[in-house]
Design brief:
It contains 9 helices and 15 strands. By secondary structure, it is an alpha/beta fold. The two termini are about 20 Å apart.
Length: about 280
């Protein structure tokens, strides 16, 4: 069985994949200010393993709400492998405080440290190493990225297992998503078509809604990682991100939000995809 947790990290993002053979893969490591997601992971999955590690960390892009708990991760569950958009580094602190300086320093140090090629037999992106899960990362070309806007580095992650497909995003700008679709980069149209779940780009902001991208995915459910509405563009999210829908607890649902539904978990096995929502797990 594959498990995917979309954690309630308020405005940030943190997705946790547990593979059928027990590997742990994180996509981003945002966190609540008041409660560390890394401490939660350590206590939940590595309580009795002092030397426990995350097998792979994938950073979609290094905006702080996607790497907020990186210093804690390096201290407690330092990842074996790091995938990140290297050209987005080095980054600078978003504020002149000790905490923000620590986050930026940790991110830059990791970018410098993780430079050795990964042997095929150790790479968790290889299907044979992670219990049959297929993972592919599609990155925007360097000509379309700029450090003036780190969102432009956001990649698209495709996760497939037993016929189910999850599309995970960062804060991808609508303009870049449309260019990727227009040129059908890496045959993306075929790869994302009729997916099971989409993690909405840029926390579901409708100002970055790319209709072509979403219509091609046409998911049963869209997950939005957000907190209480702070952007008016989130108010219409449930209307624009309306795919095929699914019946959950007797109701037709199209959009799930960490703001209302808490931590959202999908357990995937052959011919089965079960959804759990828990407002108290983290």
């Amino acid at each position: 069985m594959m498990k995917i947790n979309f954690y309630d990290v308020e405005h940030g993002s943190c997705t946790h994949i547990i593979t059928p053979n027990g590997k742990h893969i994180l996509i981003d490591v945002g966190s609540r200010e008041s409660k560390s997601i890394v401490s939660h992971l350590k206590n939940t999955y590595f309580r009795y393993n002092y030397y426990g590690q995350i097998d792979q960390l994938i950073i979609t892009h290094p905006h702080e709400d996607h790497i907020y708990d990186l210093p804690a991760l390096c201290d407690k569950l330092k990842p074996r492998i790091l995938h990140r958009p290297q050209s987005a580094f080095p980054i600078v602190p978003t504020q002149d405080t000790q905490l923000h300086r620590e986050i930026a320093k940790c991110a830059n140090d990791m970018n410098n440290e993780y430079n050795s090629p990964v042997a095929p037999e150790n790479n968790p992106l290889n299907q044979a190493n992670n219990g049959g899960i297929e993972i592919e990362i599609i990155t925007p070309p360097s000509s379309e990225t700029t450090k003036d806007d780190l969102n432009t580095f956001s990649n698209i992650i495709i996760v497939k297992y037993e016929g189910y497909k999850f599309i995970l995003t960062g804060d991808n700008p609508k303009s870049i998503l449309q260019k990727i679709m227009d040129r059908n980069q890496d045959n993306i149209r075929q790869k994302i078509a009729y997916s099971t779940v989409l993690l909405a780009p840029h926390h579901g902001r409708t100002g970055e809604f790319c209709e072509d991208f979403f219509k091609c995915i046409n998911p049963f459910l869209t997950v939005v990682s957000d907190k209480s509405i702070v952007h008016t563009t989130q108010e219409e999210t449930s209307n624009v991100y309306k795919g095929r829908g699914a019946e959950l607890d007797g109701k037709n649902r199209y959009v799930l939000t960490t703001r209302n539904d808490g931590t959202i978990t999908f357990e995937v096995a052959k011919n089965s995809c079960t959804v759990f929502m828990n407002t108290e797990s983290y």
